[in-house]
Amino acid sequence: MSEARSEYKLKNPPDDAISSVRFAPKTSYVLIVSSWDSYVRLYDVLGNTVRTKYTHNQSPVLDTLMTEANRVFSGALDGTIISCDITGDQKYTVGQHEDAVRCLEFSEDKNIIASGSWDRLVKLWDARSLGPIGVHSQQDQVYTMSVKDEMLIVGTSSRKIIVWDLRNMSQPFQQRDSLLKYQTRCVRIFPNKQGYVLSSIEGRVAVEYFDSNPEVQKKKYAFKCHRIKEQGMECIYPVNAISFHFSHSTFATGGADGFVNVWDGFNKKRLCQFHRYPTGISSLAFSNCGSVLAIGCSYLGELDETPQPALEDCIFIRNVTDQETKPK
Q: What is the pTM of this model?
């Protein structure tokens, strides 16, 4: 029986921290989830069931994605990249980094998988043949990436933002320092490719633009968020996740404070805030049509003392409305 409520929790969640939630392309009912329990799970969110899962050789999985060809890719702490054909449940080792694979991105336009690693490299792979295409140094550890068509953006451990054009990887298209003073946590490209949204561990989000024209650069800004006043003190939380609504170009942020906010970045407005979730938000994903938001909740060690009893790792599916996500 399918779920019809505005929000519900998925059954059979991962047994350890959730590292990534992503919808399969062009669906709002197939969700791919990676976890530190070494598994990748594929959920049918309408039926609230686990359709299939596979293990990543007992290594924590830090990111996953799915292409239109029913092929799932995942990257793990041990540096391996695995591809699984979910129709035949066949696994292949695509390649290896010398350190953890922190993030994976797929360019449907170029049919390329990009893997970013703590070994300071981005590697490119052919999504069909699974063969290697190129290896590109990023100067520092790769913490986050985003792809839109031919555009690849990389956020590194030293707060560098490196922009690449997948059509010509001989040198970066742009390099700049983050507008934010503290460690980069997540970056996502605008749906129209004019700029990107960036978050940090210090409760801030920046909106920046690629065009170097001074008039365009005047539009960039940063703002505070995911901060809570408790007992007369302001507690500042990392902003772990960003996800764009592809139709409205608004975006959601998820923080270690357990809140999800939806923002109109162009008009500098917060559109709404959902209720507080049981623990921090580790990952967010709008479905392609924008009607569903997947919310991964996990404690990621951001507090001085580990909560006791241990906080539950869980995934919420929220059916969102235009009132919550459309610019006003």
A: 0.95
